[in-house]
Write a structure and sequence with these properties.
Number of strands: 12
Organism: Rhodotorula toruloides (Yeast)
InterPro entries: GPAT/DAPAT, Plipid/glycerol_acylTrfase
GO biological process, one term: phospholipid biosynthetic process
Distance between the termini: 68 Å
CATH architecture of the largest domain: 3-Layer(aba) Sandwich
GO molecular function, one term: glycerol-3-phosphate O-acyltransferase activity
Radius of gyration: 31 Å
Strand content: 5-15%
Helix content: 40-55%
Keywords: Acyltransferase, Membrane, Transferase, Transmembrane, Transmembrane helix
Structural class: alpha/beta
CATH topology of the largest domain: Glycerol-3-phosphate (1)-acyltransferase
Number of domains: 4
Shape: flat
Length: about 725
């Protein structure tokens, strides 16, 4: 089948649009010793290209515009779209192949595909069946396998080998088809001026499956699909859950804040190595804390509307010691940085003012187009609307230039100058956009930080948040006992200690802690002291809650904390719960908490049923000032924990550490399916910590091998 001018026009338009959207696109192969041009066959060899589909039309643009040898690719489309007349002519001219899904005859189903393959052309297939945002490759459909095996079967028959669907004969003898594996990844698939990379795996021959296909078609097809899935997994990033995937992405952005310096050749391996670290079985408490820190920091960046790169101009603390509280940047230092950044932007502004004014509608409307779209559709929406507005803008610019030049020079010269001027103007804008865009983001983030540092937190807001409970930290719901009373659910999960779960009043009595209430006052009526459950998740991860050892705290440090009973309805008093003390008697306790909706949900506290006053109901749910200050502390804490985990230099007794790790790992491997170990709990904990430490150090060494050069983690030494 012949590609027409429609395909050439559409591919050229897509190349221009997505080249403006992405900063850099690279094509590599994971097959050692071969270049991409050597691995991917040139024109004349029939191919079925199988790729993942996680970014809608952007994936199609990457394949079509950056495919090796600049080969043209066919795509499947439903036969119902090929209506007689102009629609059919345009679709066929663009290289689309009609597929009749209603027919049961596979030879008819893939008739147009066979014609393209017999002509030595390539067909691109997304076997997932659609575009999705997923953390791992889902089960694949069998369309590509059926097409490849049916094509080889067609070639085996001398009567159909050279016959095309319209009855004509192929000019050359058809060749066997090759299945090519392509994985597409993005540094940030929704962001303007991000990077993309396409990585090819080894080709899959079809001949080993054809004999079985002639006997048992479905079995052979399933085996070939499984092989495609196996090879496709190797060229994309797969994670068992979103928490590990987001933690790995955030860690990579901390290690390489600037995409310009990111080694795209190794980006997939970098992400997959970090995913394997955070998804490791039986992680230690420190590793789980780091994973949670990375996720909370990512959410905080999204909530405040800034990026980690835009905060990179703010220096990190001189000593990145996770055991030391990290101070906020001083107001004067941030003010000085803001002044310098503002001056730098003002110096550049005259050179970029005209392109900025002309393209401002494109920026704003493209951003609006992606505001409510799915994650996998945001890039294509930005590009589509931005392209339309850009063409209108450039046409207007061209018309204005012609009108201004028409009176001074002949019309032919005016057209030529207008065309050249428009092209030069577009190139000038693309040349300056990267640096100015980054400086604008940085300046906006600095002003946000400066405003947060110079603005005090309102007392009413501080009180509102002090008596709020984040759902991820709220206690487990109570369950009624046989008497209808609510009792708390006890747990010995290590996460409780990590997240700061509190002890109940009856535990205080067991441990001999009488609290800090007035003498003779009933503890059941005592006003509860602020507990870790009353603070946000960021405060817990940063340690900003009353420590058990501090005076006035009624939490005993030596007791494994249990989750206190929480009310079944927000704002109501917890029913009295009967709990046996050490002496065998019973006592009651009660406590009132107010639960908050999830972070960044935009739901006010009074809408969640919390008992607040009218004045408090008018307050915003979250303080912008408090958000930004917490973000700065989160940034320092997250960077410190990541640096400590990956790059902390081992002590002099590293050999002893290795021996302890081997012994602890051997004992830890003796655990059964229920988590019970043959050794003590302390030995299991030590083995888990040592295993995680060693794995993290190995990942850190691998990051250095893949191109990390020490940037992004501050210059201070770990204490």
């Amino acid at each position: 089948m012949v590609f027409g001018p429609t395909h050439t026009f559409l591919r050229g338009l897509a190349s221009y649009a997505f080249a403006s959207f992405w900063y850099r696109v690279e094509v590599h192969t994971r097959v050692g010793g071969l270049e991409v041009g050597e691995l991917v066959p040139e024109e004349g060899t029939p191919m079925i290209v199988v790729a993942n589909h996680w970014n809608s039309a952007a994936d199609v643009a990457v394949l079509s515009c950056y495919f090796p040898h600049y080969r043209k690719l066919h795509y499947w489309a439903k036969s119902t779209l090929f209506a007689p007349g102009l629609p059919r002519k345009i679709l066929l001219d663009a290289g689309n192949l009609p597929v009749d899904r209603k027919t049961k005859d596979n030879q008819k189903l893939f008739a147009s595909s066979f014609d393209a393959l017999k002509a030595g052309e390539a067909i691109a297939v997304f076997p997932e069946g659609g575009s999705y945002t997923v953390h791992e490759l889902p089960a694949l459909k069998d369309g590509a396998s059926w097409c490849a095996l049916e094509y080889v079967k067609n070639l085996r028959d001398p009567r159909t080998r050279r016959v095309l669907s319209d009855g004509s004969t192929a000019k050359t003898d058809p060749k066997d088809v090759v299945i090519s594996i392509a994985g597409i990844a993005y540094s940030d698939k929704t962001k303007y001026r991000s990077c993309a990379v396409m990585e090819f795996g080894p080709n899959i021959p079809v001949e080993p499956y054809i004999e079985e296909f002639l006997v048992s078609p479905k079995t052979a097809v399933k085996k070939l699909t499984a092989k495609i899935h196996e090879e496709l997994v190797k060229v994309i990033v797969n994670a068992p859950d979103w928490e590990s995937r987001h933690a790995a992405t955030m860690a990579r952005k901390i290690l390489w804040p600037d995409d310009k310096k990111l080694p795209l050749r190794h980006m997939r391996e970098i992400d997959q190595t970090l995913v394997d670290l955070f998804a490791a079985p039986n992680p230690s408490a420190s590793l789980r804390r780091l994973r949670r820190l990375l996720n909370v920091y990512r959410d905080a960046l999204y909530s405040t509307g800034v990026t980690h790169l835009s905060l990179s101009s703010l220096p990190l603390p001189a000593t990145l010691d996770p055991s030391v509280p990290h101070p906020l940047p001083t107001r004067m230092r941030v003010l000085g940085t803001v002044i310098l950044s503002t001056i730098a932007c003002l110096i550049r502004l005259p050179f970029f003012l005209l392109p900025l004014i002309v393209h401002l509608p494109v920026y704003l409307f493209a951003r609006y187009a992606a505001s409510n779209a799915l994650e996998e559709d945001q890039a294509q929406n930005k590009v589509a609307l931005g392209l339309v507005l850009a063409l209108v803008t450039y046409a207007t610019f061209f018309a204005v230039a012609c009108a201004l030049l028409w009176t001074s020079i002949p019309w032919g010269g005016a057209l030529l100058v207008a065309i050249v001027g428009t092209i030069a103007f577009v190139a000038y804008h693309n040349r300056l956009i990267d640096d100015n865009y980054r400086k604008f983001q940085r300046l906006l983030a600095l002003w946000t930080v400066l405003f947060a540092l110079w603005t005090p937190v309102a007392q009413s807001e501080a009180s509102h948040f002090l008596h709020s409970v984040h759902p991820s930290l709220s206690p487990a719901p109570p369950r009624p006992d046989a008497d209808g009373q609510y009792v708390s659910l006890e747990t010995e999960d290590e996460t409780d200690a990590l997240m700061g779960a509190t002890t109940t009043d009856h535990e205080d009595a067991e441990n001999g802690d009488e609290g800090s209430g007035r003498e003779g006052e009933s503890k059941g009526r005592r006003k509860p002291l602020p507990s870790p459950a009353l603070f946000s998740e960021q405060d817990h991860l940063l340690g900003n809650f009353p420590h058990p050892h501090l005076p006035g705290s009624h939490h005993h440090p030596s007791h494994q904390p249990n989750r206190p009973a929480s009310p079944p309805v927000n704002g109501t008093r917890t029913p009295r719960s009967r709990t046996s003390t050490a002496a065998g008697s019973t006592r009651t306790s009660e406590e009132t908490t107010i639960e908050m909706p999830p972070l960044a949900s935009g739901i006010a506290a009074h809408e969640e049923g919390a008992p607040v006053t009218r004045a408090q109901a008018r307050l915003p749910r979250r303080s912008r000032v408090r958000e930004v200050r917490a973000l700065l502390r989160l940034r320092a804490e997250t960077v410190a924990r990541l640096r400590e985990a990956l790059f902390d230099s081992p002590a002099d007794g590293d050999d002893e550490f290795e021996e302890e790790f081997v012994e602890a790992s051997r004992l830890y491997a003796g655990t059964n399916g229920n988590g019970a170990a043959s050794s003590s709990a302390s030995t299991r904990f030590e083995g888990r910590e040592n295993a995680s430490r060693l794995l993290a150090r190995q990942v850190g060494e691998r990051m250095k091998e893949l191109g990390w050069r020490g940037a992004g983690l501050g210059s201070g030494k770990l204490a």
